[in-house]
Amino acid sequence: MVQKAVFDIAGITYVIEKAPGGAELDVGPSHQHFLSDKEPALRFRAVDGPWPSLEGLKKTFDSTSWWSMSEAPGARVVSFFNATPPYEENRRAVLAPDYRSGAVYCRNALDQSFPLNYPLEELIYINVLPSFDGVIIHSCGAGDGNGGYLFVGVSGAGKSTISKVLMKGTDWKVLSDDRIILRKMEGGIRMFGTPWHGEVDVCENMGIPLRRIYFLKKAPRNEAVRWAPALAATHLIARSFPPFWDADGLDRTTRLCIDIATQVPCYELGFVPNASVLDCLAGLKDG
Predict the structure, then answer these.
(1) What is the dihedral angle through the alpha carbons of 87, 177, 277, 214, rounded to the nearest 10 degrees?
(2) What H or E segment, with its residue span, contains residue 197?
């Protein structure tokens, strides 16, 4: 029986422990790639017991759909809700102010089997990444022998299409088609895969140097236009996941995106959604 599991995402490890007497932890296929035997930096546990009260707490953020956050003495209390009627609360997490530890109260066995189910795990990383010089970007990330390439875009911009093209008959390795973590580390910017994939069920636990950033746009022909760092930084910030409820974390994330856009060549990539874009990418790598 799985009592606890340790995961390594972008070089930041965490452990989750099951509730005593609660459901066995169930590590899904995506997270299997991220299992680790390293010492965890973050610690969380499932709790089977009365939920902590929200009475008298100040609500500091409300997503208006999935979750809301309240401030308690020495803690952050986050409530999570079902996505369909009657929109009942299904989990309540009590997290340390630095988000590096906490307890998760679950209403049903499904949540108990993996208490950090979406969006809690991602929310924790959004909050801790600024202190690790990191940020989540809405993007596809892929690498080859030359390093890593980030394809940034909103839903429908072509991230999944690019992923499918790169995965078919090429030597590219796709790290994720929807969420990539960038970290400023010794030696430059590194790009990491995450278990938070999109339409294409692919996620690689890899960290590789970031060589270029492409902002996707579907177009009648394949063409890349180099962007100035200021323009690229604006678009990178808009596609990032910063902690809006934390002024310091928001500032760190903004500055990091500016640093990344300054250090890494950035392009707008207009592309035809088929394999013909590979020739364009090859020319950019060689140029």
Answers:
(1) 90
(2) none
Quote the crossing angle between the two packed helices 159-167 and 277-286, to the nearest 10°: 80
Out of 130, 146, 169, a domain closes at: 130
In the chain the beta strands, taken as DSSP E runs, fall at: 4-9, 12-17, 42-47, 58-62, 67-72, 75-81, 89-95, 101-106, 134-144, 147-152, 173-176, 179-185, 188-192, 207-218, 223-226, 266-271
Is residue 98 packed enough to be buried (19+ CB in 10 Å), middle (13-18) or exposed (0-12)? exposed
| Number of domain units in the chain | 2
- For residue 258, give its domain range: 133-286
**Phi, psi (deg, nearest 5) at residue 69:** -125, 140
Q: What is the pLDDT of residues 119-169, one digit of tens each?
A: 999 999 999 999 999 999 999 999 988 899 999 988 888 899 999 999 997
Q: Are residues 176 and 265 in the same domain?
A: yes
Which CATH number do you get for residue 236?
3.90.228.20
Q: pTM surpassing 0.85? A: yes
**85 and 185 share one domain:** no
Question: Are residues 156 and 109 part of one domain?
Answer: no
